[in-house]
Amino acid sequence: MRRGRALTPGLALCAAATLASLGAAHVLPGVSPLVVAIALGVVLANTTGAPAAAGPGLAVAARRLLRVGVVLLGLRLALADVAALGAPLLAVVVVVVAGGVLGTLALGRALRVPAHLAVLVACGFSICGAAAVAAAAGVTDPDDEAEQDTVTAVALVVVFGTLMIGLVPLVAPLLGLRGARAGAWAGASVHEVAQVVAVGGALGGAALTAAVVVKLARVLLLAPVVAALALHRRRAVRAADGPTTTGRRPPVVPLFVAGFLATVVVRSTVPLPDGLLAAAGTAQTALLTAAMFALGCGVRFAALRAVGLRPVVLAALSTAWVAGLAAVGVLLAT
After folding, report:
1. Fewer Cβ in 10 A, N or C end of the chain?
2. Cα atoms in the 13 Å half-sphere on the side-chain side of 236
3. What is the pLDDT of residues 227-240, one digit of tens each?
4. Do 99 and 134 touch, CB atoms closer than 8 A?
5. Rounded Cα distance, 306 and 42, in Å
6. What are the tens digits of pLDDT across the range 58-76?
7. CA separation, residue 300 to residues 42, 47, 297 (Å)
């Protein structure tokens, strides 16, 4: 009972911010409620600040609600739709995600960006934006000791993903990409699902469907990437603790990743009513929006200034690298 009372102020604040963000996104088509929510959180954090009593509820939203949202994200993925892309485009998706992660990590080392922040940027820019950042942080920083890295990576996703909304429709024709091919490039290069929808809508015609399916194929690769990060951390903990230590180690596959895979399987094998899928989609958006607001409440401009320009340069180079890989892949595969 006491635990519930302690969580109530923060969760109520998240609920209010979520409703406001969803309302703003409804009025402003193409604007993700996740972007609005994190902006609200940042403004609150750097003006009056969130009430101290809201702390426990905000912490739950930033971690547990986010993980439930990632699990529900799996219900948007039907394996048959992804398979319908064909082997060439699926290969492009794998190359973009793997090459994006590895290339961004290499760029991060060259720029001397802190390794943990580089990992979060690599996952967010190569897979599915803020959800991927938070999922990666859930296994690389389970105790929120480097929360500033998470909010920095999410902020960079928001900024550069938003820039891509305007750039992709302008650049696609210059590359000879139109219709479904332009949509495939958007889906393979833009960070957030909501941003991909905005780009696909701007491109028009068959571009939107192609963009969303290719993007969801990238989302599917969130599970193996996060599992690989969890395995790496497990080995690091084992090496640090020594072979005789019997303490609790991180799981090889985090529970929320297993849940994500389970919902993908359910969506792909069980006929689900449209109403249920719509409700799950609404819940998923609301949960991730609440989580983004909670993360935004942890952003301090002073701390962001202390990070310096190197993460911004990394984000710009990662965006260009992923977009370049995707463009070459789509041109060769279609």
Report:
1. N
2. 10
3. 888 888 878 767 66
4. no
5. 16
6. 988 987 888 888 888 888 8
7. 7, 10, 8
Closest by CA to 135, choosing from 25, 12, 13, 228, is 228
3-state SS, the chain, equals CHHHHHHHHHHHHHHHHHHHHHHHHHHCCCCCHHHHHHHHHHHHHCCCCCCHHHHHHHHHHHHHHHHHHHHHHHHHCCHHHHHCCCHHHHHHHHHHHHHHHHHHHHHHHHHCCCHHHHHHHHHHHHHHCHHHHHHHHHHHCCCCCCHHHHHHHHHHHHHHHHHHHHHHHHHHHHHCCCCHHHHHHHHHHCCCHHHHHHHHHHHCCCHHHHHHHHHHHHHHCHHHHHHHHHHHHHHHHHHHHCCCCCCCCCCCCCHHHHHHHHHHHHHHHCCCCHHHHHHHHHHHHHHHHHHHHHHHCCCCHHHHHHHCCHHHHHHHHHHHHHHHHHHHHHHHHC
Q: How many of the other CB atoms lie within 10 Å of CB of 106?
A: 13
Q: How far apart are CA 211 and CA 179, in angstroms?
A: 10
* pLDDT tens digits along 185-224: 999 999 988 788 888 888 877 888 899 889 989 988 988 9
pTM, to two decimals: 0.78
Calculate the alpha carbon distances from 318 to 170, 190, 226, 311 in Å: 19, 11, 19, 10
End-to-end CA distance of the chain: 58
Q: Which amino acid is at 232?
A: H
HSE on the CB side for 305, CA within 13 Å? 3
The pair of three-digit structure tokens given for residue 228, joined into one six-digit string: 């690989």
